[in-house]
Write a structure and sequence with these properties.
- The chain has 14 helices and two strands.
């Protein structure tokens, strides 16, 4: 067995780096996260919540996710994005899954979301075995974890007990970052949801398996100084720019991988790309130019093991934003697309 000393040393270094990079910002030094034995949400959610209620739940979810990812590996990134959009709006309550006029799912910001059919398939199977027992919010959270693992990402335990929201408003979806914000705006967004600068940098690493349409990066390709849109447009490698301009010349609906090097493998190469000015989204590349985030990026480049560990921790934090658990909060939908009629 390998010694844990080098890893612990690197964790200490990360804390010191982040402390030193505060630069007088209001956000006092975020501390590197670990999952304590007694979880802060232990009175709300539980790792054993379905142990008696639906003991084969994780087996069903894992089997179904494997089937879907085998047919289309891009669904792994789609599930990660769907989970983020759900949690980042009104909390992890499956409100993004609701399908009705004026729901989050109908918003402009949600039009490129995918993976709904995966959740529907899992839910249908779960309902056969455990009717009206497992929430869509819990299914989406666990399916995201399993999809990440299938592409080489880390495993983390998912605490359960979330309920599904009865409400969904398209206007709420507009709050989700779209890839052209400033780092300050992103930090404010994350902090308002109980996340910190480390979570921002680490969760951005999910782009190691993501992709985006050419239409959404036109400012990166043609407004190189950021003067045309007034949006920040950090430097981009000349060879990478040439590749992107050629690829996106003919069709705005052509897709480009967010990780230009290892797009189908969950790894820390995404951060090395930023070091080489190969960040596709403006918000990604700015992680390497902002003094609050660059030291963290450098640490994750130097130690992929820290990235994997912290990604697990940050995903658990993300999955527990504003969860509905009270007796009079939310419901257990029998169909993830619609609120219950009873």
């Amino acid at each position: 067995m390998k010694s844990s000393v080098p890893f612990l040393f690197l964790l200490t270094v990360l804390v010191l780096i982040i402390s030193a990079s505060g630069g007088g910002e209001e956000d006092s030094s975020p501390i590197f996260s670990t999952l304590p034995e007694t979880l802060p949400f232990a009175n709300l959610l539980s790792f054993t919540y379905y142990q008696q209620r639906c003991p084969k739940l994780e087996e069903i979810i894992n089997k179904k996710v494997k089937e879907w990812i085998a047919k289309d590996h891009t669904l792994a990134a789609s599930l990660l994005r769907l989970h983020f959009h759900d949690c980042a709006v009104t909390g992890c309550d499956a409100s993004t899954l609701l399908k009705h006029d004026g729901s989050e799912r109908t918003a402009e910001a949600s039009k490129t979301l995918r993976g709904f059919q995966v959740i529907d398939d899992i839910k249908a199977e779960v309902e056969k075995l455990c009717p009206a027992t497992v929430s869509c919010a819990d299914i989406l959270t666990a399916a995201t974890r399993d999809a990440t693992v299938l592409l080489g990402g880390p495993y983390w335990m998912v605490p359960y007990g979330r309920k599904d929201s009865r409400f969904s408003n398209a206007k709420d979806a507009d709050m989700v970052p779209m890839g052209r914000e400033s780092i300050t705006t992103l930090l404010e967004f994350f902090q308002s949801r109980g996340l910190n600068v480390i979570d921002l940098v680490v969760l951005s690493g999910a782009h190691t398996i993501g992709r985006t349409a050419c239409g959404s990066i036109q400012h990166r390709l043609h407004d190189l100084n950021g003067t045309g849109t007034g949006m920040p447009n950090p430097p981009i490698d000349d060879h990478y720019l040439d590749f992107l301009q050629r690829k996106c010349r003919c069709a705005s609906d052509q897709y480009v991988y967010l990780d230009a090097t290892t797009p189908t493998t969950f790894d820390s190469q995404f951060y090395a790309n930023l070091q080489n000015k190969r960040g596709l989204l403006s918000t990604d590349q700015m992680l390497y130019s902002d003094s609050r985030t660059k030291p963290i990026v450098n640490t994750l480049i130097q130690s992929p093991s820290i990235f994997r560990h912290q990604f697990s921790v940050s995903m658990v934090k993300l999955g527990n934003i504003q969860v509905l658990t009270g007796q009079n909060e939310g419901e257990i939908r029998t169909n993830c697309n619609f609120v219950n009629s009873y």
